[in-house]
Specification:
Blueprint: H1 2-48, E1 65-69, E2 75-78, E3 100-103, E4 112-120, E5 126-133, H2 135-183, E6 209-216, E7 228-235
Antiparallel strand pairs: 1-2, 1-5, 3-4, 4-5, 6-7
C-alpha cells in the first residue's frame, strides 16, 4: 500500500511540475509576443505619418531586432543590431500580428526569436518586422527545471514517509488482531480476540442485551394448564 501511495504521489508531483513548466513557458512567450506586437504597432504608426528614421532607436530592453521591408524585399529602416543586413524574415504580415518562432538569425548565438509582422503605409506598402529573443525565457525555464529536479525527489520521500507513518498507525489494531488470530489453534477454539478500543461516544456504553419472551410450564402441572411468560435476556 505504501509503494502504491509513493507511486501516486511521485506521479502527481512530476505531472504538476511539468504542467508548471509548460504554463510558465506559454505565459512568458505570450509576454514576448505582446512586447513585439506593441513595438511593431509604434513603428507602423511612424510609417503612416512619414516619420520613419533610417536607424530606429533601441527599445527598452535594447535587444529587439526591427526591419522595415518594402515590396521588393529592400530594407528601408532597421534597428542597430541588423543594420546593413538584407531582409532576415520571410513570413508574410497579418492584421492580428501573429507571432512566429524564428531560428538561425545571425544576430545572437542561440538564434531563437519570437517575431511579428505588420503591414504599414498606404501608397507604398511596407512590412514591419519586430523580433524579440527568447534566450532569457529559455534560461529561466532551465533554472526552474533544475530546481524542480532537485526539490521534487525529497518532497516525494517526505510525503511517502508521512503516508507510511499514518498508514502504519491506522493498521496497528488490525495487525494485533491478526497476530492473536494466528495464536488460536484448533485445540484452543475458546480463545477470544481483544476488541479494538472505542473512541466514539458509543464506547462508554456497556454491552446491550436483547430480551425476548419465552414460555415455561408451571411446576407441578400436567403440562396442559396455562403457561406463564418469562423473559430471557442474553448479551448482544
Amino acid at each position: 500500500m505504501t509503494a502504491a501511495a509513493a507511486l501516486i504521489i511521485s506521479g502527481a508531483l512530476v505531472g504538476a511540475a511539468r504542467l508548471l513548466v509548460v504554463w510558465l513557458r506559454t505565459s512568458l512567450l505570450t509576454g514576448l509576443d505582446q512586447t513585439a506586437l506593441e513595438r511593431a504597432q509604434v513603428i507602423a504608426a511612424g510609417v503612416d505619418t512619414d516619420s520613419l528614421a533610417r536607424v530606429l532607436p533601441a527599445s527598452g530592453s535594447g535587444d529587439t531586432a526591427v526591419q522595415v521591408v518594402d515590396a521588393r524585399r529592400a530594407v528601408r529602416s532597421s534597428s542597430a543590431s541588423p543594420e546593413g543586413r538584407p531582409a532576415l524574415f520571410t513570413f508574410r504580415p497579418s492584421s492580428s500580428g501573429t507571432a512566429h518562432t524564428v531560428r538561425g538569425l545571425p544576430l545572437s548565438e542561440d538564434g531563437t526569436w519570437r517575431a511579428v509582422a505588420l503591414e504599414a503605409g498606404h501608397d507604398d506598402p511596407l512590412t514591419v518586422y519586430v523580433a524579440v529573443p527568447t534566450a532569457a525565457v529559455d534560461q529561466n525555464l532551465a533554472q526552474l527545471t533544475v530546481g524542480l529536479a532537485i526539490t521534487v525527489p525529497p518532497a516525494v520521500a517526505l510525503l511517502t514517509g508521512v503516508c507510511w507513518l499514518f498508514t502504519g498507525r491506522a493498521l496497528r489494531p488490525v495487525q494485533a488482531l491478526r497476530a492473536q488470530t494466528a495464536e488460536i489453534t484448533a485445540c484452543d477454539l475458546g480463545g477470544r480476540l481483544d476488541p479494538p478500543p472505542r473512541t466514539s461516544w458509543a464506547g462508554s456504553r456497556g454491552p446491550s442485551t436483547t430480551c425476548w419472551p419465552g414460555w415455561t410450564s408451571p411446576p407441578g402441572g400436567n403440562g396442559s394448564s396455562s403457561r406463564t411468560p418469562r423473559t430471557s435476556c442474553a448479551p448482544r
